[in-house]
Write a structure and sequence with these properties.
The chain has 405 residues and is an alpha+beta fold. The chain has 9 helices and 18 strands. It folds into 2 domains: 177 residues, no CATH class; 215 residues, no CATH class. 42% of the residues lie in helices and 25% in strands. Strands 8, 9, 10, 11, 12, 16, 17 and 18 form an 8-stranded mixed β-sheet that branches. A 7-stranded antiparallel β-sheet has the order 2-6-7-1-5-4-3, sandwiched between helices. The radius of gyration is 26 Å and the shape is elongated. The relative contact order is 0.11. About 3% of the residues have low confidence.
């Protein structure tokens, strides 16, 4: 299977080439706008043009002659405009209001002909046919360094963005990797259950690990939204550029925050010899958590996405179970009593057997247990399944085995 990711890398651009790169970005933005203007005018039949090749046939030569933009960047500008126009047409078909795309941010799209990657630096096509060499800047142990320096990740095109607030260039590199699909049919399976949350901890595992500060994530999101709202009221071009800058900064921070949480979760699975990680199936998350914001919904999905590709790289399968009653059912072996009164906030006290647990920890145990029961019911391949707990494992028959770690 093909796994694709985006590496966000800060660039160190030589002082004498910063103006050349900035002029390139401004020229690319203006060229993209010209392609979009022409596409919005449409064909003779009045339809908006959404094909990059069609736009090139109409105005490529004029734009190249007028701007002197690198040939590959001109092609990328046409495709960038076409994508935006296609988004407008999609909205029109849905009956939504839309208007002609207007490009104001400093973003330049580089295909593999316009950018060359080397160890520690890249070469970017610039205005007038020259090239700018820029070094990568990132912590050695960051996920960005892993994407850019490890041979198994193949680097493709990229987007160059400029942060006005910090006067910094960032390269968003698309990388891919081919991996084998992990198998969930091994003879012996050890299952790690995971409960995700919108507050408190991002994830709690059946082994008792409490991972990621969801409250910090939500706090930083609220601070970003407050600052964005104040800037939006100003209505100036400078404020608009700052909104884009702080938006990119928060997006990068959020992705990195979830990266560390997902890495910790996968390491928890590895340390307990788990072959499968199980989440609740929150496809219909709005129904599952009615008061969850779109951002929290994104965080839920993004955490699982990051866990999936990290787990797959370790040969660990990621599965889901139906979320019904995972917060109300007692996870104690031999009990399983289900009642709404069992849970009270972070506390879980079974009204039948009296077992007391953290409610999210109880849910994580039940998620793993439900998966194991489902596999036993389906008679899957004769495999033996074990639920990973703090101090050992429990199989489908309730037999406990202490940890040897």
């Amino acid at each position: 299977m093909e796994i694709t990711r985006t590496a966000v890398v800060k660039l160190s651009v030589p002082g004498d080439r910063r103006d050349d790169l900035k002029r390139t970005m401004n020229t690319f933005r203006d060229a993209t706008q010209r392609f979009a203007d022409r596409g919005w005018d449409g064909n003779d039949d009045g339809y908006v043009i959404t094909s990059g090749n069609h736009l090139q046939r109409l105005v490529y030569d004029d734009i190249r002659d007028d701007t002197g933009l690198h040939a590959d960047l001109t092609v990328a500008a046409a495709d960038h405009a076409a994508n935006a126009l296609d988004g407008c047409v999609t909205k029109m078909k849905k009956g939504e209001r839309t208007s002609k795309p207007v490009f104001t941010s400093n973003t330049t799209v580089y295909n593999t002909n316009a950018i060359t990657y080397f160890d520690g630096y890249c070469s970017l096509a610039a205005y007038g046919g020259s090239r700018v060499h820029a070094e990568y800047v990132y912590p050695a142990d960051s996920i960005q360094a892993e994407y850019m320096e490890r041979d198994e990740w193949q680097k493709r095109g990229a987007k160059l963005r400029y942060d006005h607030e910090t006067d910094t260039y960032y390269l968003h590199v698309s990388v891919k990797q081919e991996r084998e699909e992990p198998s969930a049919e091994a003879e012996n399976q050890t299952v790690l259950g995971v409960d995700r949350n919108v507050d408190g901890y991002l994830a709690v595992t059946s082994t008792g690990a409490f991972i990621g500060n969801a409250d910090l994530l939500n706090h930083n999101r609220r601070e970003y939204e407050r600052r964005r709202a104040r800037l939006h009221q100003q209505g100036t071009r400078s404020a608009h550029l700052t909104i884009q800058s702080i938006g990119d900064t928060f997006a990068n921070w959020s992705e990195d925050f979830l990266h560390h949480a997902s890495k910790e979760l996968v390491n928890e699975a590895i340390s307990h010899g788990c072959t499968t990680i199980v989440f609740e199936d929150l496809t219909n998350i709005r129904d599952r958590i009615s008061n969850a914001s779109k951002f929290q919904q994104w965080a839920f999905n993004e955490l699982k996405r990051q866990v999936e590709y990290k787990a797959n790289a370790e040969g660990i399968a990621v599965e889901t179970v139906h979320p019904a009653y995972t917060s109300q059912r007692c996870s104690e072996t031999g009990c399983g009593f289900t009642h709404a009164d069992n849970r009270d906030g972070d506390g879980f006290v079974c009204q039948q057997c009296g077992k007391e647990l953290h409610s999210d920890y109880n849910a994580a145990r039940h998620i793993a247990h439900k998966y194991i029961q489902n596999r036993h019911t389906s008679g899957s391949g004769g495999a033996t399944y074990h639920l990973a707990l703090k101090s050992g494992t429990v199989n489908g028959n309730g037999e406990y085995s202490p940890s040897t770690v």
